[in-house]
Amino acid sequence: MRVFWFYRPTTRGGCPRGTGAVGACGCEGLTLHGRVFLAVLGALALPGPTTAIQWPGELSGRVVDSLTRTTLGAVEVLVEPGSWRTSTDASGSLLLRGLEPGSYRVSFSRLGYGRTYRDVEVRNGNVTRVTVELTPVALELVGITATAAVAASGGVVLSRAAIVASGARTAGDALRAVPGVVIQEQTRGGPQSVSVRGSNPDAVLVLLDGIPLNDPITGEADLSSVSARSLMSATVLPGALSVRFGPRAAAGVILLESSADSDPWYLSAWAGSLGQLGLDVGGSRALWHG
Asked: Which residues, other chains included, contact 90 with Cβ-Cβ below 8 Å and sequence gap of 6+?
């Protein structure tokens, strides 16, 4: 930097007016104001330190699986203090801008992986880079018990008390009193098929504790094989109420629920017209009819 200046020489203790340059006779000819002016110009002419343009700090990184080394997306990244939050993209990368300079604690978490922490230092004008490995962990799931019950809205439900009071021997005998239900029995003590509202027996689905009793060939269910004493309840859902049970329940469905405290064994005898006599032995299911 060049500095040009002018002076006014004086004859008092200095160079005569109009003779030579200042450099030839020194600075004695300058007034006090001139000397101050030269000092200021000299200070401005000195080269100063270089000042770089700075921006807020940034945090950049990548998250990978510690076992497979594959990148992990959807990893939640939380920076504290300040509650800065972001997540990694599909390539496992993250970028946070505008962080104030200082120390931060960064947590990385993802479902199926253990949480990991990193302490980082952020400075203005710098990008802090981290590479984080997450370790897979087994998740302990709390057991869930689901209980489903079929609503009997519009149907007929026989309670255990009603079944016992009827004196029924088999499930078929217990259902005889239900309107629209016809129990077909060829001989006393023989197989019992069921018809709902005049349907064929193979159009009625019978479930005992959710297990179909219908024969896979004939499609009919034998209700004489289920002891009435073993039942907690019997539900009859006719027609459209049984549509959720599929095509095998076109005419209706009968839901039989067994009782946990049923009699383990029973023995009964009966007598009918025309000199018919019989003996039944069974438990939760009838074992023998004669």
From this structure: 71, 73
